C-alpha cells in the first residue's frame, strides 16, 4: 500500500505515522508513506498558498494551483490514476466497510485542507472520494487522514502480529466485540467469568456471541437492526 498525503504539515503526518504499529509497518515496507508539502508547489515568490474568498466572507481559501502541482507530483510516481480522498466534514462518514474497500487499492492519495477549504475547481478536477470522520469540525484534514490510514493499515496482511480475525472484530456483522479478560483471575475482587476458565470452546463461543449482542443492544442500538441474528438470538433480546 502506498499512501501519498498532500498537506501543509508534512511533519505532522510523518511523526504521527512513524509511531507504533504503523511505524513498524513502514519499517517492514508493508506500507509506504510520502507526505507532500503543498507549499513546495506554490507559484508565488512568498510561497503563499491561500487567498481571500471571492464573494467575501471569513477566512482564507487554499488556492487551486499549489494543490494541483502536488497532485501532479504524485501522478509521476504511479501507473494509473489513483483514488484521491479529500478529508472534509462535507464527505460521507467513514466506517469499517469503507476501510476494507480502500485497503484493496495499491495507491491512495489523501488531500488535507486547512482554513476555510480548497478552491472548488481543483477539487472537481482531482478528488474521487469526499470523506468525513464524523460530525464535528477539526482544524485540518491531517488527523482525519491519519485516522483513515491507521484503520486501513491494520487490515493489510502482516501489519498486525496476530492477523486480525475479521470474524470477531467490532463491527463485523454490525456487532460490537465481546469483553476480554487476562491475568490475574481475580482483580480488585472481580472474578473472570467462569465460562472463560472452563476450556469448553463451544460454551465460550456462545457466551461471547451473546455478550456481543447484549453490548451492541446497550451501546449501539442503531447497529443491532443491521446485524443478522438467528431467530433464537432475536428472541433472546426481546426478553
Ligand atoms: N476536516 C475538518 N473536519 C473534518 C472531519 N470531521 N472529517 C474529515 N475532515 C475534516
TrEMBL record:
What reaction does this enzyme carry out catalytically? guanosine(37) in tRNA + S-adenosyl-L-methionine = N(1)-methylguanosine(37) in tRNA + S-adenosyl-L-homocysteine + H(+)
- Output one GO MF annotation: tRNA (guanine(37)-N1)-methyltransferase activity
One Pfam family in the UniProt entry: tRNA_m1G_MT
Binding residue positions for S-adenosyl-L-methionine:
113, 133-138
**Residue intervals passing through the bilayer:** none
Could you confirm whether the keyword NAD appears in this record? no
Return the broad EC class. transferase
Q: Which GO terms describe its cellular component?
A: cytosol
Q: Output the InterPro entries linked to this UniProt entry.
A: Alpha/beta_knot_MTases, tRNA_m1G_MeTrfase_C_sf, tRNA_m1G_MeTrfase_TrmD, tRNA_m1G_MTases_N, tRNA_MeTrfase_TRMD/TRM10
CDD domains, A to Z: TrmD-like
Q: Which residues form a coiled coil?
A: none
Respond yes or no to whether keyword Methyltransferase is given for this record: yes
Q: List the EC numbers from the record.
A: 2.1.1.228
Per UniProt, subcellular location reads as:
Cytoplasm
- The tRNA methyltransferase TRMD/TRM10-type domain covers which part of the protein? 1-226
Alphabetical UniProt keywords: Cytoplasm, Methyltransferase, S-adenosyl-L-methionine, Transferase, tRNA processing
Could you say which residues form the signal peptide? none
**A GO biological process held by the record:** tRNA N1-guanine methylation
The record ties this protein, via PANTHER family, to:
TRNA (GUANINE-N(1)-)-METHYLTRANSFERASE
Report the sequence similarity comment from the record.
Answer: Belongs to the RNA methyltransferase TrmD family.
Function description = Specifically methylates guanosine-37 in various tRNAs.
Assembly information from the UniProt record: Homodimer.
What is the protein name given in its UniProt record? tRNA (guanine-N(1)-)-methyltransferase
Native species: Velocimicrobium porci
